[in-house]
Amino acid sequence: MSAVEQQAGARGSGRALAIAGGIGRFLLIAATTYLGLLAVTFFIGRVIPIDPVLAVLGDRAPESVVERTRREMGLDLPLIEQFWIYIKAALNGDFGTSVLTTNPVMADIRRVFPATIELATVGTLIGTVLGIPLGVLAAVKRGSLADQFVRVVGLVGYSVPIFWLALLALVLFYAKLQWVAFPGRIDIVYQYTFTPVTGFYLLDSALQGQWDVFWDVFRHIVLPGALLGYFSLAYISRMTRSFMLNELSQEYVVAARAKGLSETRIIWGHALRNAAVPMVTVIALSYAGLLEGSVLTETVFSWPGIGLYITDSLQNADMNAVLGGTIVIGSVFIAINLFSDLLYKLLDPRTKVR
């Protein structure tokens, strides 16, 4: 074997080891983070002043029944052993039975989570489509009235409580103008005639050609989706402005202007393309934030998603449902966060393995 072939083989082996090491670190971070999430939810479930046995049986159950149920639930075991059982059950998707619905918690989550995903997706699309152009405009017109307007819009999005803005939106667009439908996900006229397949009502109704159902679902989702989209817009526009200001100050922009390239090509063809790499992470985190932070929005708009499910369960001391929903949302947030980090490394040539 020649020296050149040996060097090529060594480089290939080194690259394979580097990739394997990166995958190993990625999996270790994911496992450690998920274990931390399980630990937090487990100990929260043990320190809150709600007895899970009494939540199931009621406070008038005989003491013998209470003790037997406590043993059956494993609550008489040492804490570390309870934690190990909790980990194994969570890894198998077993979060117990909901006291409120009497269904397995995971079955309830599979039923309600698509509604939250659909709502968060609409909000993220609105925030991305409007937030990126506004952020670019603010960066290009730095210090102008347009820049001040975009910054004020973002500031209001961060400062105003979402439940207050949601109530105002309901009063204006539903009660006064009647532009949107009553809170909920679908009108009662279609609730028992429409059969969803994927759980995403907009997609299912379009695929089935039921356009009357599609527009009814659209009229229900447009207001809460726009509200979440506004908060997503506030974050995305601010970050886009920051990234674009950084790119517009780079030497390649000065060189492009010296060559006579148009401002449109410099801004949209060069600066925004380079800023798009970190924006992937921003959009992913915004999407994850809407998935986990839509509790108040779902409550105000009676949106039957996981946020409303957790709220109702908490009000009824249904801790299996509360902790199960928290773990699912936390797991999705971790997965999206790690995926965006991995995607960033793949898209950014400066972070690729050499």
UniProtKB/TrEMBL annotation:
ABC transmembrane type-1 domain mapped to chain residues: 113-344
Is-annotated flag, keyword Ribonucleoprotein?
A: no
Its record classes its membrane topology as: Multi-pass membrane protein
InterPro entries for the chain: BPD_transp_1_N, MetI-like, MetI-like_sf
Q: Please give the Pfam families that the UniProt record associates with this protein.
A: BPD_transp_1, BPD_transp_1_N
Q: Where in the cell is it found?
A: Cell membrane
**Matches recorded under SUPFAM superfamilies:** MetI-like (SSF161098)
For this UniProt record, the keywords arranged alphabetically read as follows: Cell membrane, Membrane, Transmembrane, Transmembrane helix, Transport
Q: Which Gene3D superfamilies match?
A: MetI-like (1.10.3720.10)
Q: Where are the transmembrane segments?
A: 26-48, 119-140, 152-175, 217-236, 271-290, 321-344
Where primarily located?
A: membrane
Q: Which family does it belong to?
A: Belongs to the binding-protein-dependent transport system permease family.
What protein am I looking at?
ABC transporter permease
- In its UniProt entry, the species of origin is given as Ollibium composti
